[in-house]
C-alpha cells in the first residue's frame, strides 16, 4: 500500500478470481495500468476505448476492473476481454481504501506501489500514465 497525494490505493489480488476473456496478467511485467470503472458510467464509457493507447506498453499489464457483474460485462461489452485484461469487481470484491464509488479512476502501479492515480477524466492522464509505465513514445 502506498500513499500518493493523501490517497491510498492497494493493487488488487488478481488471483482471487478469473479474468473475463482469455488474457491474464503477466507477473513478470514491472507495471500495471489499471482502469477502475463501471459500465453505467458515461465517463468510464469514454475512457474504455482509449485504453488501446497502452497496447505497446510492453512492461505493463493493462487491466480494466469494472464494478459490474461478469454477465453484464459479457452482455454489454462481449469483445472487451479479447484485447484487455478485464475483471468484474463483483467477483473480485476489491475495496480501495478510499474512493470506491468514483468512476473512472486510472492508476499506475510499479510492482505493488502506486505511482500515479487520477480520478475522473483529466487532460494528459493517458500521456502521463504512459510515461510513468515506461511505454515507448506514442505513434
Describe the structure.
With 139 residues, the protein is α/β, with parallel strands linked by helices. The chain has helices at residues 42-47, 70-76, 80-83, 89-92, 125-132; strands at 2-4, 7-9, 31-37, 60-66, 85-88, 105-110, 113-119. A hairpin with a 2-residue loop joins β6 and β7.
Beta-sheet strand percentage?
25-35%
Q: Report, as a whole number of angstroms, the end-to-end distance.
A: 34 Å
CATH architecture: 3-Layer(aba) Sandwich
Mean pLDDT: 89
At the fourth level of CATH, the homologous superfamily is: Glutaredoxin
Structural class: alpha/beta
Short characterization:
21% of the residues lie in helices and 27% in strands.
How would you describe this structure in keywords?
5 helices, 7 strands, 21% helix, alpha/beta, disordered N terminus, 139 residues, Glutaredoxin
Question: What is the secondary structure topology, with strand pairs?
Answer:
Layout lengths: L1 E3 L2 E3 L21 E7 L4 H6 L12 E7 L3 H7 L3 H4 L1 E4 H4 L12 E6 L2 E7 L5 H8 L7
Parallel strand pairs: 3-4, 4-5
Antiparallel strand pairs: 1-2, 3-6, 6-7
Amino acid at each position: 500500500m502506498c500513499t500518493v497525494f493523501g490517497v491510498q490505493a492497494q493493487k488488487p489480488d488478481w488471483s482471487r478470481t478469473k479474468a473475463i476473456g482469455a488474457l491474464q496478467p503477466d507477473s513478470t511485467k514491472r507495471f500495471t495500468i489499471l482502469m477502475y470503472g463501471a459500465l453505467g458510467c458515461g465517463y468510464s464509457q469514454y475512457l474504455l476505448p482509449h485504453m488501446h493507447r497502452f497496447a505497446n506498453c510492453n512492461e505493463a499489464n493493462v487491466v480494466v476492473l469494472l464494478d459490474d457483474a461478469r454477465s453484464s460485462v459479457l452482455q454489454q461489452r462481449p469483445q472487451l476481454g479479447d484485447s484487455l485484461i478485464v475483471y468484474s469487481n463483483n467477483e473480485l470484491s476489491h475495496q480501495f481504501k478510499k474512493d470506491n464509488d468514483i468512476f473512472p479512476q486510472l492508476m499506475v502501479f510499479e510492482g505493488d506501489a502506486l505511482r500515479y492515480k487520477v480520478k475522473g477524466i483529466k487532460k494528459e492522464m493517458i500521456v502521463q500514465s504512459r510515461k510513468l509505465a515506461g511505454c515507448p513514445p506514442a505513434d
